[in-house]
């Protein structure tokens, strides 16, 4: 991202700039660089497809994610070919450069293990790279790299650890494939949150002193859910045309996760743990979509998809069939493939999140602490 022009004038038509200043309180064009004051030496990432920079494709090069149009807005290359991007290299990339951190995230990953999910009738899980597996990768990595460096774990105090977003797929598989009821999926939430809490504890055990733990998106606003649970009952939708009961489910998960974070803060008073409010970030994006230059007639339609009110058909996935093509201008859409967002939507969400997270990281305090340990 550092090499890109982040000027708002490059993103938006002039007629939107004044209104945008009002709703954003003006996001500075160099918003991404404010984190530099935290003096992070590295970033270590756990999670699912929201954060995976190639682990899934390394394991399955035939994946649809390795084909265009995936990656077409990123240097006009398929995701698998984007080898020199200025992001974290995937752990499974044998040629990866890990000088500034490692990405352990894996597309399709769950917080709970395949074994636990199978007991809950979520029998189809496309990968066994759950959160615990990624933690094992992380432990193996640190054990290997720290073997001859007694201060290695102390150095992790100068790194940023991202624990998630994770847990969303546990619910996706339960709702979408397992066809579990709302009550059955809600019963999973405490266990999912406990898995995330345990992961945070393990990461702290690796020497982490600064962590971000993201929550879940408002799933009732996404084409994949809007399509499956579409109803003629207008009272089921909120003012943003999202399914209220599904968003309330996300809020339930996020509330329990924030409670767990508060408990962890009490247990580890010298560690800074910040909640990543993906829910509010996306709600802001959706509510201001018109002002941000998105197409108001397609704000909840997938860019790469086909059929139905939301341009999404789960049986005809993006890049899997030739008749499923991407929209002409992905920058005008929020949703890329019905499940993931477009690059532009993620960029704007990142702006909101960085502004929200930065003061909570207490970077001056964190640097002083990490230099003292």
UniProtKB/TrEMBL annotation:
Residue ranges of the TM segments? none
InterPro entries the UniProt entry points to = GDSL, SGNH_hydro_sf, SGNH_plant_lipase-like
One GO MF annotation is: hydrolase activity, acting on ester bonds
Keywords, in A-Z order: Glycoprotein, Hydrolase, Signal
Give yes or no: UniProt keyword Cell membrane.
no
Q: Does the keyword Glycoprotein apply?
A: yes
Q: Give the source's domain of life in one word.
A: Eukaryota
Coiled coil, from the record: none
Pfam families for this protein: Lipase_GDSL (PF00657)
Q: Which family does it belong to?
A: Belongs to the 'GDSL' lipolytic enzyme family.
What is the designated name of this protein? GDSL esterase/lipase At5g03980-like isoform X3
- Gene behind the chain: LOC110415555
